[in-house]
Write the C-alpha cells for this entry.
Amino acid sequence: MQEMYLKQAKTISLIIALLSLLQALLAIIGFVSVLLTLSAVKVSQTIIREALINTSINIICFLLFAVLFFVVYRRLRKGVTTSIIVQFLYIAYMIFSVILGIVNGGFSLQGVLVPLMLIILGIASAYSIKKS
C-alpha cells in the first residue's frame, strides 16, 4: 500500500513541477509582452510598473516551485522520504494568489478554477507523501 502512495506522490510532484514550469514560461511571455507594448499603449507608468513587478514575482515563484518539486520528485524516485513543507508553501501561495486575484481583478471562474485544481493537486501530493 505504501508503494502505491509513493508512486502517486512521485507522479503528482512531477505534474506540479511541469505545471509550475509552464506557468513560469507563460509569465515570462507576459513580461516580454508588457515590455514590448510600452511604447504602443498609452498607459500610466504606475500601471506598467505594477504589471512588471507582479509578473516578475510570478516568474520567480513559479520557477522556484518548479525546482523544488523537481527536487521532491527526484528524492521520491530514490526512495528518500521528504517533508511536505513544499506542498504547504505551494498551497499557501496559490490561495494567496487567488485572494489577490479576486481583490484586484474581481471574481472570474478562470481565475479561481485553475488555482483550485492546483491546490487540490498540492493537497493530494502532501497526503500521498505523508502516507508513504
Summary: The chain has one domain: 1-131. The radius of gyration is 17 Å.
